[in-house]
Amino acid sequence: MTGIYKLKSKIDKRCYIGSSINIENRFYQHRYMLKNLRHDNAYLQNFVNKYTIDSLSFEIIEECDKEDLLNREQYYLNNIDNLFNISKSSSSPMLGRKHKLSSLKIMSDNNKGEG
Known about the structure:
By secondary structure, the chain is α+β, with helices and mostly antiparallel strands. Helices cover 39% and strands 18% of the residues. The protein has a three-stranded antiparallel β-sheet. The longest helix has 13 residues, at 23-35.
């Protein structure tokens, strides 16, 4: 599923807005990074460090075509307050890029506790 998603705090009104051409996979990437203290977003990582990963909910806000992703994400970034997002810009250098097989194997092994 391609679209816009939100990681929402269950503690307060903060949330993180993102977009992906594969929302389910992106959700698992966020969880993995947060659980392993590797998330690029310090605000989100600090929140999870303090309140645990279970203090976040994951919601799909909108399904849309790949061509509309960044415009629709920007709409939400402009219209939602209390964001965890570091940047208010929806630019995404990873949009449509795929990981190397070696990187996918490492991520898979780490998810299985083998890495």
